[in-house]
Write a structure and sequence with these properties.
This protein is of the alpha+beta class. The chain has 17 helices and 24 strands. The chain folds into three domains: 275 residues, BirA Bifunctional Protein, domain 2; 91 residues, no CATH class; 94 residues, Rossmann fold (3-Layer(aba) Sandwich). A hairpin with a 5-residue loop joins strand 23 and strand 24. Helix 2 packs across helix 13. The chain binds adenosine-5'-triphosphate.
Amino acid sequence: MDKIVALAKRRGFIFPGSELYGGLANTYDYGPVGTELLRNIKNLWWETFVHRRTDIVGLDASLISHQKVWEASGHTSGFSDVLLDCKQCKHRIRADHLIEDYLAENEQKIDEFVRRFDLVPQSTDIDPERIKAGIIHKKVEGLTLLEIETILSHLKITCPNCGKFDWTTPRKFNLLFPVHLGIVMGDQSLAYLRGETAQGIFVNFENVVNSTRVRLPFGIAQLGKSFRNEVTLGNSVFRTIEFEQGEIEYFFDPESENWEKLFATWKEAMWRFIITGLGVREENLRWRIHTDEERSFYSKQTEDLEYKFPFGFKELWGLAYRTDYDLKQHIKHSGKELYVIDPKTNKKVIPHVIEPAVGINRLFLMALCDAYYEEGERTVLRLDPRLSPYKVAVFPLLSNKEQLVSKATEVFDMLRETLVCTFDDRGNIGKRYLYQDEIGTPWCVTIDFQTIEDGSVTVRDRDTTEQIRVPIPELPAHFQKKLSR
Ligand code: ATP
């Protein structure tokens, strides 16, 4: 992971946020090539789930929304993490992460815990079965504060920062960012930066139904920033306080559609997007079904698509059957009716939803991790060419030969019309290849002395390092063919 983070900084994928002023925890800025990679992932997501589908439309809702939106969704009361502070060194940590990481590293403690737990008298305010299930599945999200405290006192998990066991009692911390609108103190009204993109979809459900020709089953997709007051540090852009989400609410009538079948279809579409869309290795992916304790009370089924990051298998993309919970909550809180009319029966239907929700920045980090290879003296990012920031790099063999430079500029200008390209005439050719390998450019075109004689150029392949000669007029078609799959 350290090597990937170093490469990301060195080559301009990601920089720590506000670095000039000492940094701001859990924020990152995307550099020139990182911005291109992020855009390519977003474009591919939009193309796959909106443009290529006839049953999904897009939406771009406001980042700041009315406090009632978040009251209705349950976020103001329930969207919280359990935090612990180390009294010795003041280190702050999410209790579920502390316990889960400990169990992942000390699996032998699990059996021992379960065996000994029943022998000790416990408070009647906790549910021992929930605790044991949480320990066995190494998933303790959803347990009560007292249950978390009980686990901590049994396992005696020490502070990863100072090694002491001296925690404050666990307490809940809301993840929503409040914003105060208006300039006059006292007259300001409270609103929130959105904690997920999904609520913008539910709030606009009626607007979309009334303004478009959608018919059940249909989806509304949204791609955009969400904000969460996260405290866990580390692992680059995996968890940040500001991140990009791609969410779809897929609305259907449970009386005419089988939810299990729809759920399976979505699982297949998500898996395919990662494998064939982003070109990630299948062996690094797996599904994980949420335990009963972890799943929200209104959800009938939740599964996470996880990727094997260098720091372990972690959630990339959640898929949840959320029933009609969200629409009903907004009906209750707004006092408005939200429904669609079934054209066959003329009946009002409050649809159910299946929600695939992905973090684009996690897809970005996955793409970097999956593509990172060290081969002899070179480091290469074997990104799928469709994701690569630049598709082609153009070089004149020597920067002091006017004839080569002007021909290279001509080829560069021609390729730039249809492909995102870059130009480099600094240093020797070997160094230029190594630089392009590190940013994942799939092909390098070199204009050399033979070009002046016969109009052909060298095309060097990033993955095989093989070089072939291609006539200049054939270059655009040559690359387009490789890019179209
Ligand atoms: P986690 O358990 O990792 O905190 P979550 O279950 O709260 O995630 P969801 O609310 O289901 O996440 O959000 C959907 C997706 O958004 C996640 O699968 C993840 O890819 C992404 N995501 C959530 N929180 C963050 C974050 N702080 N930074 C980056 N991506 C995030």
